[in-house]
Amino acid sequence: MPSLKTINKLSFFKTLTKQQKEKIASISIVKKYPEKSILYYETETNKNLLFLVTGLLKIYKLDKFENEIFLYHIHEDFMISELSSIKQKDIYCFSNAEFMKDSIVLEVDFKKFQEQFLSKNILTMELLEILLEKTHQLQCIVNRELVFDATAKVAFMLSNDLEMFNKLKRQEVSFMLHIQPETLSRVLKKLSRNETIQINNSEIIIKDKNALEHSFKGISI
Prior knowledge:
By secondary structure, this protein is of the alpha+beta class.
């Protein structure tokens, strides 16, 4: 059973009383996952609501040629599960999830969570908010893949996930954004010439946040 310290690391449960948090702990388990391990595969089902306590998770799909299509990262203190209904007992996995670093996951029994919390209108607003955030995340993916040009893709990632951008190798960033490494280099040089960003020993520093957001805002977002 997870400790209250673990529960308290997740902002999703911050409005609960100590007694309610203890109830969450009683219907939950904590699991540790090493880097590169798989949490679940697409089409699997799960009976637990999953939260990333610490670590980093990559969400991706595979095309018909088994090529990986990067979707997004899930950072710590966020819900992992992709809910299509709050009434069903099973949670369906619509993508694959791989850990990018050693991670800790809180798994809450979904059926008991429905009975003891959602049915009493406890944490329903918090769940709605996180589901809306995931919907917006999906809209961003659609824009990135179908609408954004290379500059907008790079600017969007810099604006929303600068830490991850700086941690990854340029080739990995290119792969994630589905652009050529040469194109990424060209976009970064252009943004640097425009003094939108500054490049210090391969580390990107944002100098003009408004100009950076202008590169992708207004393009069906």
